[in-house]
Amino acid sequence: MFLYNLTLQPASSVSTAIIGNFSGTKTQELVLARHQHLELWNIDTTTGKLSLKHRQPAFSHIRSLSSFRLTGSSKDHIVLGSDAGSAALIEYSEQTGFVQAQYHEFGRTGVRRMVPGQYVAADPRGRAFMVAATERAKIIYVVTRDSEAKVALGSPLEANRAEAVCFDVVGVDVGYENPVFAALECVGMGPKQVVYYELDLGLNHVVRSWSSDVHESASRLVALPGGGDGPSGVLVCGEGFVEYRGPAVESSLRVELPRRAGDEGRGALVVASAVHRMKGAFFILLQSESGDLFKATVDYEAATATATRLGIAYFDTIAPASCLCILRAGFLFAGSAGDGGSSLRLFQFENLGVDAEAGEFEPQPLRSLALVDEAESLCPMVRSQVLNLTDEDAPQIYALCGRGAQSALRIVRHGLEAAELAVSELPGTPQAVWAIARSGSGDGGQLIVVSFRDATLVLGVADEVTEVTDSGLLTTEPTLALHQCAAGGTVQATPRALRRTYADARAAEWLPPRGLRITAAALNSRQAIVTYGGERAAVFLLDAQDELRETAEPLVAGSEIVCVALPQVAHGRRQAPFAAVGCADQTVRVFALKEGGPEPVAVQAVADHPESVVLVYTPLGLMLFVGLRNGLLVRAAVDEITGELSDPRTRFLGARPVRLRECSLGAGGAGVVALSSQPWLCHAYQGRLRTVPLSYDALDDACAFQSPQGPGLVAISAGSLRILAVDRLDAEFNHAAIPLQHTPRDFALNPQSRHFAVIETDNMGSGSWASVLRVLNPFDGETTCLVELDADEAAVSMALVSFATTDGLFLAVGCATGMTLRPRSSRSACLRLFRWSDDGTQLVLEHLTPLDDIPQALLPFNGQLLVALGRTLRLYDMGKRQVLKKAQTLVAPCLITALHAHPTQKQRVFVCDAQESVQLAVFSSSARQFHVVVDDSLPRYTTSVHVLDDGATVVGGDKFGNLFVLRCPETVSSALDADPEGGQLIYEKPRMGASANRWVSVAEFHVGDIVTSVTTCALSPGGRQVILYSTLLGSLAAAIPFVSKSDIGFFQSLELLMRKHYPVVSGRDHLKYRSSFQPVRSAIDGDLCELYHTLSDEARESISDALDRTQQDIFKKLEDMRTMFTF
Questions:
Q1: Is the dihedral of CA 338, 341, 344, 350 positive or negative?
Q2: Taxonomically, which superkingdom (predicted)?
Q3: For residue 808, is pLDDT > 70?
Q4: How far is the C-alpha of 456 from the C-alpha of 453, rounded, in Å?
């Protein structure tokens, strides 16, 4: 088995964020660190919407970020702290994304206590930055420019301190004096201190210039403006207090954090902060671990820059954040590390605070802030299942996410979220729809034109929707095409005539030859093509007098024309150079529109009759899209000089014929809406054309529409007119959330009623737990049954089970009372057995069985129930008052965490151990014991395992972020097939205290995040099975098995060349990263291969020459791996 690993959705959690002008423009932008990815986000200050501009993998664990601007520069750089053992200064380029400006290696890779990277801090005046480790090591770099005006790093200057443990580092604003960095640290058993490290630029030397003892609970530093804009110095945030420290103040200024009314516990800790400079002032926001925001004020004497007073007041309450950023435009950005709600939130300031300083406060709904945009999060993702409960073309991902009251069962679908703004029923059955600006309207009103079988309806859209009777359009005939004319007015094609309506309400018509009717038409602002049956089409062009004139020569296709297309007229041109026609002989022909008449320049054979055809200018050039009657979408690039077709691509969209319409949805430029059994959107995204479904009902027709909420679509479906908004073109997945009460632990599906049973458990303190068992309907979110467990009882495991001796379907739930995790123990444990009601919506407690250990895992096994108790497997059968013990065997070396059944052989069970990987055990019915016949030679801290259909291969993940594939030796498989109960295998002599047989390692790959669920499924209609896995931080990825050796050889070579030509922004070696714990084996990193399009032309050409392939061939291979097997 050889795997191609591909990330479908990166991690949702935001570890840190910075704000700056990274593109070199005056617009402020956000750079976010999402575990292994760097993202650049834009903020529309008019609408308050967040939009993703660029995303790039760093192939390392990003630990810290800081913005850095050299004196006199117009753009900000990024100081990146990671596990690469190096300092990286990064800049953003519109052409290549994030690139290294400078890089210096100083230590070993990995998250280590004494290797810098945990903290980074930059001098506010852009002269130096510090990279610090958790213990001892600190390195300062001076940043200058070389003779070619490029950024250069000076030699590293060490500021190490033996036995020092660092808690935070910031750059102190001291104006243009020597750069100073403040560190919160503790040396040995001494007191915690704020220490100033001063960089002497003249001597190129670092000294500790000042220090001050602080409280032992101090955990965060906040640097204040200086250099004439403020008092300089730092705020020290501790448990329930904030104090000002600086060399200019002999005694600290201290203030207590306001408490929530009735809160008698320990003081709150500050977990996030933001400082915003304004003209002549500055604004400080602090956030506590409970989400409360506080506004801090520092009064100071401007003449001496000495702080005189520190005050703090309650500001507002939002969800706890990992980072805060304040924008000049009056917005507050909050990024979350993962609470199950939203990972990104954007607020607008309504005021600068309404509360006076007080010791207590009552949390209030938002008063000083207003939420304007947010992005949903899957972090933390506890468990997931891939099912198709709604019988759609693609399956849905049902994920348990969040913690505490923010928990939810999220239904994840692949597709852009389409928000329904308005729905209006129409008379009759509509067939097509257009949206155009109303001629002569200065109020921005629009016309929606709906075509029926024998008529046309014109609606005016302004403050309200009304029927328009004076539009000049012909309403007694159906409309085939409609477009606004460059000279004013509109051009309308109907079966009877081509009608030109002028701005002054005049109208002119062109009629086809007698006895013929127009069957298809294509229009743009200066041209028109109409076909009136057969292989001929009339071509029209807007002349110098703004009259639509028919050209002397018609377009002759050589076959019956079914559909026709014209691209929009490019800026600065009088006409579009090409037209395309779909013909009945299953071809699409491209014609050059020349003065002497249309000339054929290219022909493309297709697999079925064309349903529709579109020519559109995308950011990647002129593209031809063809929709076929068999549900295929064909795409090809059109040479803008010769009209030749190249690089054809095909994709299956659905069972219905594909209807295409050109549209534009904002920053993505022009695109295409493809309508089949579900709507799709084809648009440019990060330098590639992407085809993504819309998560909405099937549409009959759609076109672009500009609503007050932004760009969207106006569509017709099932006899109704619908206006849709598509806000987030960067989000390939959309979520529907069903809220839960506590942190979800596991869930199971009743296959008859399609209801989920969910166990939810929260730790309320040492040995104190709160748990519920819930049955919910995933279609409407209704909870049909809720069982609250006893006080301090924790639900640990669950399984659906059917007993051979009893009719009905049961739900077994393993529980523990007074459970402690370290050391692992409980006051008591039990097994609760519930019977499902006949309709599968209710649970009735059948009986309760006491246990002598915590039931970590449950599994139905041969009509009985298998329970994992510590290191022991115990088999139970149904009894009248409790389940009855039938067999017991000690099998695991440490702790059993999960059990998995063999897909065909009922005597075998796969046992997952907390530290010692996976074991294969067989049950001997004669001896009533389990025997381990295969185990692993490597310790693996397994978190999730899935058994493949062959029954001999397991795919799993461990707590260190590794994905592995293990296979049973062929000799063992053959022996078990001959004797399902083990035969001679159970008598083989153990090796080194373990089983006589070992798993064969098939594949190893470092994912970088804890894998929480693994399964196999087909993600696309008619697609092959892939391995889909989810991780704790909310990412979704697929491991695609190769089926041909030629593909393996091609992608191995491509990956090797990409490692050579692609510079990883963090500086970490890609091969070492993917081999962090075990050498990578039989796995190719698809994320690295897909970065081929970001390389320079020279690098791409070098790789294509080495592979003996064209660049288009490589692009097609990469796209096929994603679209044919995943999303």
A1: negative
A2: Eukaryota
A3: yes
A4: 8
Model confidence at 439, pLDDT cuts 50, 70, 90, reads: low
pTM: 0.93
Q: Report the pLDDT averaged over residues 286-292.
A: 94
In whole angstroms, give the CA distance from residue 454 to residue 477.
Answer: 5
Which candidate, 114, 102, 108, places its Cα nearest to that of 142? Answer: 102
Comparing CA positions, the residue from 868, 952, 854, 971 lying closest to residue 908 is 952
Give the pLDDT mean for 669-682. 92
Give 34 or 666, the one with higher predicted confidence: 34
C-beta of residue 155 within 8 angstroms of C-beta of residue 164: no
Distances from the Cα of 524 to the Cα of 302, 541, 659, 988, angstroms = 64, 10, 18, 80
Question: What is the Cα–Cα distance from 711 to 706, expressed in whole angstroms?
Answer: 5
pLDDT tens digits, one per residue of 229-252: 899 999 999 999 999 999 988 778
- Cis peptide bond N-terminal to 380, omega within 30: yes
**141 and 87 Cβ atoms separated by less than 8 Å:** yes
Q: Are strands 281-288 and 270-278 parallel, antiparallel or unpaired?
A: antiparallel
> For residue 769, is pLDDT > 60?
yes
Where does residue 495 fall: left (phi above 0), alpha (psi -120 to 50 degrees), or beta otherwise?
Answer: alpha
If we measure between CA atoms, which residue out of 180, 181, 187 comes closest to residue 166? 187
Q: Rg of the chain's alpha carbons, rounded to an integer? A: 33
Two structure tokens written together for 875: 């088999």
Q: Which residue has the higher pLDDT, 963 or 94?
A: 963
**Which of 602, 674, 663, 591 lies closest to 632, judged by CA?**
674
CA distance 652 to 634: 9
Q: How many beta carbons lie within 10 A of that of residue 808, not counting itself? A: 12
- Residues paired with 713 in a beta bridge: 704, 724
- pLDDT tens figures, 625-654: 999 999 999 999 999 999 999 999 999 999
The alpha carbon of residue 776 and the mean position of all alpha carbons in its chain are separated, in whole angstroms, by: 26
Burial 587-603 (b: 16+ CB within 10 A, else e): bbbbbbbeeeebeebbe
For residues 991-1003, average pLDDT: 85
Query: Where is average pLDDT lowest: 143-147, 215-219, 254-258, 520-524?
Result: 143-147
What percentage of residues in the chain have a pLDDT greater than 70?
98
Question: How many beta carbons lie within 10 A of that of residue 438, not counting itself?
Answer: 17
User: Average pLDDT of 460-475?
Assistant: 84
Cα–Cα distances in angstroms (integers) from residue 1081 to residues 916, 970, 1043, 1084, in the given order: 20, 20, 17, 8
| Block residue for tokens 């729905």 | 423
Residues 522-557: pLDDT tens digits?
999 999 999 987 899 999 998 888 888 999 899 999
Q: Which of 276, 302, 177, 259 is nearest to 222 (CA)?
A: 276
Cα separations in angstroms, 927 against 711, 858, 860, 891, 904:
71, 22, 20, 15, 22
Q: What share of the chain is helix, strand, coil (3-state, %, to 5)?
A: 5, 50, 40
From its phi and psi, is residue 779 left (phi > 0), alpha (psi between -120 and 50) or beta?
alpha
Is 245:214 a contact under the CB 8 Å cutoff?
A: yes
Give the torsion sign (CA, 574, 556, 579, 486): positive
For 620, the token pair is 């990647």
Cα–Cα distance for residue pair 1113/280, rounded to 1 Å: 59
CB 377 within 8 A of CB 336: yes
Q: Are 920 and 899 in contact (CB under 8 A)?
A: no
CA atoms within 13 A on the CB side of 441: 15
Cβ(1117)–Cβ(120) under 8 Å?
A: no
d(CA 954, CA 612) in angstroms, rounded, equals 46
